[in-house]
Structure to design on (727 residues):
């Protein structure tokens, strides 16, 4: 059975159908086999073909398995590569953001970067870090102080996003989040603050570029220091050394210093201004050089040319504005126009206050001054110190900004003596609020009286005179008399007898000098609330006055001009403006006409000119109809907060009834003064006039005597005004 062996088919016998056991050899290979169990013949192909298929399937499976392994390997490699690329991309796209930290006093203008993130420290709410503007801030502001004012940052510090924007024509000061920002008319650059949320695609600098960074060598006293202009792509600039900067001609430096928006004009300065001065931004001393104005007779043609506008060049290139010494100059604030007051502080300089509490009192003044936005268009402040006798430390026009005031206050020394508050108030009423001392007339007068304990003299009568003079008196009483000490007080309840109103608005009772600082903001808020400064509303600045003028035939042209002069004489006594006293006029005969209303003219010269232009009408005398017409056409447009005063002038008895119109005037709150001349009926004048008639009706026998009653009319108007209750 060699065939069997050769074919390797175990269990089969080689043979041929019909000859069992015989092998059918073809080239020594069996072609048929008999199955030992089934006893059936099988052809070799019948055995091998299925076997070959199985082998092929097996080989395919092997190949596929091999392919799957390869694919799996490739996929693993691919995924590993992608993951590796992602990790690399993450490292490239998201580097760790380093936020530079700055100090509270760093100003935005000192940082050149147009947009940047910074980290502010804690404690930047201090008023010494000045902020200018609201929402949009001048670049001279403290970055961190502005962030607190805007509400983006708390006093505990943190990260903020800063973006530079264009300069503004005006920055409005306000008090917000414990920070008092100041007003500014204009500045060349602004910035806004937002939360520290980086924008996609924006790279923020990890190191800030400053307009003039101090190097260690410079701090050590090196006299030459390079200041580089911000780089511009595609250009190269050379640093400008201190030696080169000092080589600028004096006139050119003067031009640069005065060409800035807020540099003081040399022509208007009372004394020569130094061109070179301590530059806080640059951190170095420049030589002090004085120059004359280019408009002065001694100015040379070269100096005149140097004052012409245009960039000044150095050999090394342009000097940026930020590098000029005037960059560090404190911007001249014009003051907060919403707090335009003339303020006098009466500080206690008595011996009993002692040096320590006197120093606390001065610090309180400094804090108030820094909270106020001092300037010619805003509040002005002067100080009077009292002891035995009062003395002016400085008046309203001495210092026109908060920094100068702070310096002046710190130099005040204790006078000593008693605590004569009454004498101090009288001194202020008579001497302080004068034009020579800087009183502006249109600004409310405010006196803040500081008292340690209680006064040693009486204040009631002198305070009444002060109030009638239009002075709003505030009292800040510190460590007032305890119950056991009240027997020593000269005048009990002295503060309520002195202040402008007894409604609590004008009085502060502070328990201790150590808590006085808490009164700063409430006091600032109240003194700046000009609508509530009731004592500023005097008899001369708080009325709508309507003249009702008889133009009947009996008056005549010449006498009518005398009547107009009388009207002008009365008008001149009042403070006339849109917010103060306003004047209107009606002329009547049988008919009536409005010569000018309350809102027509807002200045005294315009009013006096309008009075002179009134033409004589001539006709009958219907006084009752004239009163009714004035109520409907003139006083109907009076302001709610104004006292309504009608001054009627007539030379005869009315053709119509005056009782009903006079009663209507009374019911509408109009105070009527009746002025009769020559043939006027005095009983009719008393009916027209407000009760009591003796104070509101006047009679003269001829037109030329009208001028004599002017003082009496003004006095009665003021007496009636001042008799109003103070509560």
């Amino acid at each position: 059975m060699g065939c069997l062996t050769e074919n390797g088919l175990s269990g089969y016998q080689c043979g041929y159908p019909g000859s069992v056991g015989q092998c059918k050899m073809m080239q020594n290979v069996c072609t048929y086999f008999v199955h030992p169990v089934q006893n059936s013949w099988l052809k070799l192909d019948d055995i091998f073909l299925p076997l070959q298929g199985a082998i092929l399937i097996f080989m395919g499976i092997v190949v596929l398995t091999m392919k799957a392994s390869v694919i799996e390997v490739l996929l693993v490699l691919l995924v590993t590569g992608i993951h590796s690329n992602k990790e690399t991309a993450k490292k490239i796209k998201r580097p760790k953001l380093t936020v530079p930290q700055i100090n509270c006093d760093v100003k935005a203008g000192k940082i050149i970067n147009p947009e940047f993130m910074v980290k502010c420290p804690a404690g930047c709410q201090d008023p010494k870090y000045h902020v200018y503007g609201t929402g949009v801030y001048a670049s001279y502001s403290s970055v961190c102080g502005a962030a607190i004012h805007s509400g983006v940052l708390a006093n505990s510090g943190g990260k903020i996003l800063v973006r530079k924007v264009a300069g503004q024509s005006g920055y409005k000061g306000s008090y917000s989040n414990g920070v008092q920002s100041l007003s500014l008319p204009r500045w060349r650059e602004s910035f806004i603050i937002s939360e520290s949320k980086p924008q996609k695609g924006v790279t923020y600098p990890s190191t800030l570029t400053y307009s003039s960074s101090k190097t260690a060598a410079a701090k050590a006293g090196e006299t030459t220091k390079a200041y580089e202009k911000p780089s511009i792509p595609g250009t190269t600039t050379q640093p400008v050394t201190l030696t080169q900067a000092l080589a600028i001609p004096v006139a050119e430096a003067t031009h640069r210093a005065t060409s800035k928006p807020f540099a003081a004009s040399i022509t208007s300065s009372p004394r020569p201004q130094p061109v070179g001065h301590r530059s806080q931004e640059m951190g170095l001393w420049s030589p002090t050089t004085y120059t004359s104005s280019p408009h002065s007779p001694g100015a040379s043609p070269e100096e005149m040319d140097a004052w012409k506008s245009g960039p000044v060049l150095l050999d090394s290139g342009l000097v940026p504005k930020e590098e000029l010494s005037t960059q560090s100059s404190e911007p001249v604030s014009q003051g907060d126009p919403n707090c335009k007051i003339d303020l006098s502080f009466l500080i206690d300089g008595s011996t009993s206050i002692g040096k320590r509490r006197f120093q606390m009192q001065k610090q309180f003044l400094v804090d108030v001054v820094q909270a106020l936005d001092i300037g010619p268009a805003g509040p002005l402040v002067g100080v009077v110190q009292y002891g035995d006798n009062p003395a002016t430390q400085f008046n309203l026009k001495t210092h026109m900004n908060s920094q100068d005031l702070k310096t002046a206050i710190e130099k005040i020394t204790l006078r000593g003596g008693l605590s004569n508050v009454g004498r101090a108030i009288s001194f202020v009423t008579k001497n302080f609020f004068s034009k020579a001392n800087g009183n502006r007339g249109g600004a409310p007068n405010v006196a803040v009286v500081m008292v340690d304990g209680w006064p040693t003299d009486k204040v009631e009568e002198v305070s009444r005179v002060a109030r009638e003079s239009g002075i709003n008196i505030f009292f800040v009483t510190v460590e007032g008399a305890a119950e056991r000490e009240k027997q020593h007080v000269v005048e009990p309840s002295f503060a309520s007898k002195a202040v402008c109103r007894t409604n609590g608005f004008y009085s502060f009772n502070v328990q201790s000098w150590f808590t006085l600082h808490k009164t700063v903001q409430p006091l600032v808020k109240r003194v700046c609330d000009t609508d509530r400064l009731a004592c500023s509303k005097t008899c001369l600045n708080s009325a709508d006055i309507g003249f009702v003028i008889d133009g009947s035939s009996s008056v005549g042209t010449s006498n009518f001009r005398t009547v107009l002069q009388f009207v002008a004489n009365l008008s001149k006594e009042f403070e006339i403006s849109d917010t103060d006293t306003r004047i209107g006029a009606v002329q009547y005969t049988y008919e009536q006409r409005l010569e000018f209303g309350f809102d027509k003219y807002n200045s005294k010269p315009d009013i006096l000119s309008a009075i002179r232009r009134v033409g004589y009408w001539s006709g009958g005398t219907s006084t009752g109809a004239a009163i009714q017409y004035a109520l409907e056409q003139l006083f109907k447009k009076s302001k709610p907060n104004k006292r309504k005063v009608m001054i009627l002038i007539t030379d005869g008895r009315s053709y119509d009834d005056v009782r009903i119109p006079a009663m209507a005037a009374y019911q509408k709150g109009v105070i009527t003064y009746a002025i009769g001349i020559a043939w006027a009926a005095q009983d009719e004048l008393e009916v027209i006039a407000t009760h009591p008639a003796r104070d509101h009706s006047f009679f003269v026998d001829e037109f030329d005597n009208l001028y004599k009653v002017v003082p009496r009319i003004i006095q009665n108007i003021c007496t009636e005004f001042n008799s109003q209750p103070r509560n």
